[in-house]
Amino acid sequence: MATVRNTPTEAATPQVDDLALLGLMQLVSPALPIGAFAWSQGLESAFELGWVTNEEQLGAWLEGVLEDGLSRCELPLLVRLQKAWAEGDAIALAKWNDWLHATRETAELSDEDTRLGGALVTLLRNLELLPEPHLIPEEPGYITMFAWAAHKRFVPVRQTLLGFAWAWLENQLAVACKALPLGHTAAQRIIERLRPQLAVAVDIALERNDHELGPILPGLALGSALHETQYSRLFRS
């Protein structure tokens, strides 16, 4: 199991805690200029194909992605990547970045991670917040750079995972409000339904061993593949 703790020089103080929280809020904000709003992660295909047609089905779809996707892939990977950044371990960073690319089952999903990662690199460069060049993997993915930004902001690992999961859920519901369509009150009901499960997914992710990692989302992969040739669409994936 990979865990990360603050170093003695990052000892918790009210000011550090406040700035870490604000830094996390900045990272998960829809206003972060990396273009995450342009991607649906296969959800638009689920609408088009009739797999998801209402609030109840959307909640079930998102629960499945959270349980069989995020808790097995993105969230435990953030644990390992934030630890690698904390230790300045370029080998581990390259390893997990490559592993992430290998788990993306469609061109769209791979393109999303690479493009968002590149956009975050550009933003961090403009803010003078990039790590040492030798530590940045070739074609860094979004999760890799998200972990760096969280480390740079002294965000504790558990909060990093919660913030990432929250941003994912908000983005998926924004997609549904545009494409299903889903009313904003219904979106809030889904948040209430899934909010406790975000915390459970984080607990599970923190305990996963390396051999337990890997998403199990054949439906999402199929939907994403079909989306590549979908005639009419609002999103890039």
UniProtKB/TrEMBL annotation:
InterPro entries: UreF, UreF_sf
Subcellular location: Cytoplasm
Keyword entries, A-Z: Chaperone, Cytoplasm, Nickel insertion
UniProt function note: Required for maturation of urease via the functional incorporation of the urease nickel metallocenter.
Family per record: Belongs to the UreF family.
Subunit structure comment from the entry: UreD, UreF and UreG form a complex that acts as a GTP-hydrolysis-dependent molecular chaperone, activating the urease apoprotein by helping to assemble the nickel containing metallocenter of UreC. The UreE protein probably delivers the nickel.
Protein name: Urease accessory protein UreF
Name of the gene encoding the protein in the UniProt record: ureF
